[in-house]
Design a protein that fits this description.
Largest sheet: 5 strands, mixed
Strand order of the largest sheet: 10-11-12-13-14
Number of helices: 13
Strand content: 15-25%
Distance between the termini: 63 Å
Shape: globular
CATH architecture of the largest domain: 3-Layer(aba) Sandwich
CATH class of the largest domain: Alpha Beta
Number of domains: 3
Helix content: 40-55%
CATH topology of the largest domain: Trna Endonuclease, Chain: A, domain 1
Number of strands: 14
Order of helices and strands: HHHHHHHHEHEEEEEEEEHEEEHEHEH
């Protein structure tokens, strides 16, 4: 069996094991509302079924799932392809019917945070957390030069044909395994075609609206990246008409297996922040008296994203240590920053311009940590003023 197939089988087994652990924690929580427990168990059962071959998946019903959680896990898990492990004989509950401490340890080892178990997160949220942690773990293991190169690639080459992606990612291509086939994403396909966002290059979402489709980038629609698609009625792509101020022409691409895109969590927490960082860099790099370092730091390269210095002769040297954030929810971002144990004093958190109305809420959340919050345009304006540039 090919190494790639063994790795894929192991990933399915790992996901099934994680789903069983999450279900066991929910089963042993005496205060969890029955309706919410049922939803979570259905969520975990769907993950477990997806890990099995179709004929076996059809046999696993809720009754068998709940019963199987109370005994050795072997009957619930897909078979191990590589080295045998001990999980077939593992039991998740102790004699008192409570989830064993080892369950939380297993989840932690599979990148499931403790909060996910205590708060009973949905599986999509857990999977997003896993992908985000895997991404940052991969990036931290890279040499500084490769780290900076990979960050740039995340921003510039997050989707495309296999041929083009492998050429751009070059020596990192075989090490970066966060790409998925666009053919498996029906939400971005219209008549067998998909459209890359002109800003981030990631697939835009297509939603039927009567006989037509609304096609828009989830992240950049507020900047005017949205279109209206009319089917052609024939074999080729239909007509895509821009309906927003930033809706420049884009070329349709076939929704085939040889077109890939980074997973949604990697796009959300990897690609989008990098685009903000590059946007900020391009806006200030040519200003007088500016020195700029992208992704500085050898020991902790992800502590912040840009170090901008303005040294005007005869004036006090100004520094900005910038951490760009592209979260959908500023409330969730505030909670994440509040819970981060090490948050550099003097850090400047930069948000996209369309979140300007929300920056004051986030600023209040992190003010006692010595952190400032602004938007891309406001920071560029502050740097221009420090340089003596008047627009």
């Amino acid at each position: 069996m090919a190494v790639k197939n063994v790795a894929a089988d192991q990933e399915r087994r790992d996901q099934a094991l994680t789903a069983c652990c999450m279900a066991a924690v929910a089963e042993s929580d005496p205060v969890l509302a029955p309706a919410r427990r049922s939803r979570l168990l259905m969520d975990c059962l769907a993950v477990l079924r997806a890990a099995h071959q179709p004929e076996r998946a059809a046999q696993i019903r809720m009754k068998e799932f709940r019963k199987g959680l109370r005994g050795p896990l072997g009957p619930l898990l897909p078979p191990a392809s590589g080295r045998p492990d001990r999980f077939d004989s593992m039991e998740l509950f102790d004699a008192q019917g409570l989830a064993r401490d080892a369950v939380k340890d297993l989840c932690s080892e599979h990148l499931v945070p403790l909060a996910a178990l205590e708060q009973h997160w949905s599986w999509p949220r857990v999977r997003a957390e896993q992908d985000e942690q895997r991404l940052f773990g991969f990036m931290r293991r890279l040499a500084p030069e490769d780290y900076r190169h990979a960050r740039t690639l995340l921003g510039r080459h997050a989707a495309g044909s296999v041929r083009e992606l492998s050429r751009q990612w070059d020596r990192l291509w075989m090490r970066f395994d966060f790409f998925e086939s666009v053919a498996d994403w029906p939400w971005c396909q219209v008549d067998g075609w998909w459209y890359p966002c002109p800003v981030c290059r990631w697939p835009m979402r297509a939603v039927r609206s009567g006989p037509q489709f609304d096609v828009r980038c989830e992240a950049h629609a507020p900047r005017g990246v949205h279109y209206r698609y009319t089917p052609s009625g024939g074999p080729g792509p239909g007509e895509l008409i821009g309906t927003g101020k930033a809706a420049v022409p884009v070329t349709p691409l076939p929704a085939s297996a040889d077109h890939l895109a980074v997973s949604r969590p990697v796009w959300r927490y990897g690609t989008l922040p990098v685009l903000l960082e590059l946007q900020l860099r391009d806006a200030v790099v040519d200003l007088p008296y500016v020195e700029l370092v992208m992704w500085p730091g050898e020991q902790r390269p992800d502590e912040y994203d840009l170090h901008i210095t303005v040294a005007v002769p005869g004036k006090r040297v100004r520094h900005w240590r910038v951490d760009a954030k592209a979260w959908e929810s500023v409330v969730a971002l505030g909670a994440a920053l509040t819970n981060r144990p090490a948050l550099r004093k003097g850090l400047t958190i930069v948000l996209p311009d369309h979140q300007q109305s929300e920056q004051h809420f986030l600023a209040a959340q992190v003010r006692d940590r010595g952190v400032k919050v602004t938007t891309v345009s406001r920071l560029v304006s502050d740097i221009e003023k420090a340089c003596g540039v008047v627009r």
